[in-house]
Design brief:
Layout: H1 11-20, H2 24-32, H3 48-60, H4 64-75, H5 84-96, H6 100-109, H7 119-131, H8 135-142, H9 153-165, H10 169-181, H11 188-200, H12 204-216, H13 224-237, H14 240-252, H15 259-271, H16 275-287, H17 294-306, H18 310-322, H19 329-341, H20 345-354, H21 364-376, H22 380-392, H23 399-412, H24 415-425
């Protein structure tokens, strides 16, 4: 009986398979060798779409060496001109990964692909510089903008964001004014960035005035991000009645309330002890089809721990697991911190030891919190065990905690344990 030869994969079919393949390693292998039985003298003719898809998958997975292999192969293509957006994506991937040298190298290499650099790739590199917090290099790079075209709204938005990150709102306003002088229309991102900067600087009155100008003068509608920014600023001042008016305004403008909005309100309500209202917002959140996430549950845990309601904090921890929302290390650290504060060091230690079984490894904050708690309640033998494990893991204890620990041992006259600890400390470097 003759064996059936599998039908060769076409370039169109390969694009579909790459799009559907969730594992970037398998997608890369498929891209490299779509038809293993194909005649090697007749190389596979990849489409531009398959190049775009595989570069995007590899970039998102931070598989940069493999991504560079694909770019090298793309450079040999003579059937089509490589579009600029491919390089914009690559530069953005490197910028988000804080690999500035690679981002710069990609920008410089664009002409070698017979592709012209425009304001689009310029903006991508400008944003990469911002992600890497190279604000001085941004300034120098912007001076050469004319070689690539006229600055657009995206260019100015990146510059305004840099000013706000640098807490230099006066310069941000100058950039905003220049934007208008050059005839570039501000976008909702422009206003959102400026309003965020004003809120971080506690200039809420100006933030609200700008929102009104945005709507009345510039005819730009606020989006969810802008409203969430305002909500966070308001909640920071404790004016929850105004926060709820903003929430109602969002509903009135038919802007969908997302998880960030609900999380901000829940956290603010719990901070001032309004537990019942916070639970009401949580129910509203669920009823509106907005699924609580780890941030939501951590806000609840933090709120309950803040009012020493550890029973409710544990209940939230259990609910997270039931709802398929895995608790993270912050969830546990908050409870461990509260247990230590209340002198329940044994319970804190039990929860700490139980973390790996629950699928969450302790981090440096977990170790420091428990160690400090044990020292504070003079449980020095248990503290010595945690310290030893901490140093073995490569974590550095805080100097203040060590001083408290050593002073406690000296006070007890426990010379043997003190020598053991000093030996152990010799293995680590204290901050």
């Amino acid at each position: 009986m003759a064996t059936l030869t599998p039908k060769p994969i076409s370039p169109f079919r390969l694009s579909s398979l790459i799009r559907l393949q969730k594992d970037p390693t398998l997608a890369f292998q498929l891209f490299q060798n779509p038809n293993p039985t194909q005649n090697p003298r007749k190389p596979f003719r990849h489409s531009l779409l398959s190049y775009d898809l595989i570069i995007t998958k590899l970039g998102r997975a931070k598989m940069f060496d493999q991504m560079e292999q694909v770019l090298l192969q793309l450079k040999q293509e003579r059937r089509f001109v490589v579009p600029e957006f491919i390089f914009c994506d690559v530069i953005s991937f490197y910028g988000r990964a804080r690999l500035l040298a690679r981002a710069l190298q990609t920008f410089d290499s664009i002409p070698s692909f017979q592709c012209r650099r425009t304001i689009k790739s310029f903006n991508s590199l400008l944003d990469a510089l911002l992600n890497c917090r190279e604000l001085e290099k941004m300034k120098n790079f912007f001076l050469g903008v004319d070689k690539y075209g006229c600055p657009d709204a995206c260019t100015y938005n990146i510059l305004i964001s840099a000013c706000c990150i640098n807490r230099n709102l006066e310069v941000a306003w100058h950039v905003f004014d220049e934007m208008q002088r050059k005839g570039v229309r501000p976008t909702v991102v422009t206003f959102g960035t400026l309003i965020n900067g004003l809120c971080l600087d506690f200039r809420l009155e100006e933030a609200f005035e700008l929102k009104e100008d945005m709507m009345r003068v510039f005819k730009v509608k606020p989006n969810a991000f802008l409203y969430t920014t305002l909500l966070k600023g308001i909640c920071g001042t404790g004016d929850l009645s105004l926060a709820f008016r903003i929430k109602e305004e969002m509903v009135g403008h038919k802007i969908k309330l997302d998880t960030a909005v609900y999380n901000t309100l829940i956290s603010a309500l719990l901070k001032v002890g309004r537990k019942e209202e916070a639970l009401g917002i949580l129910e509203e959140m669920k009823n509106n089809g907005c699924k609580p996430n780890t941030v939501t549950y951590n806000a609840m845990i933090n709120g309950f721990c803040g009012e020493s309601n550890l029973e409710e904090a544990y209940r939230v921890l259990d609910e997270m697991a039931e709802k398929g929302c895995k608790p993270n290390v912050i969830s546990y650290n908050v409870i461990i911190g509260r247990l230590c504060k209340e002198g329940k060091w044994s319970e804190a230690n039990d929860l700490f030891q139980d973390m790996p079984r629950r699928g969450c490894s302790p981090d440096v904050v977990s170790y420091r919190t428990l160690f400090d708690g044990l020292c504070g309640w003079m449980q020095l033998k248990e503290a010595a065990l945690i310290l030893d494990e901490m140093i073995f893991k490569g974590y550095v204890p805080l100097r203040a905690s060590i001083n408290k620990f050593v002073n406690g041992l000296c006070h007890e006259g426990n010379t043997e344990l003190l020598l053991e600890v000093l030996t152990s400390l010799g293995k680590g470097i204290l901050k």
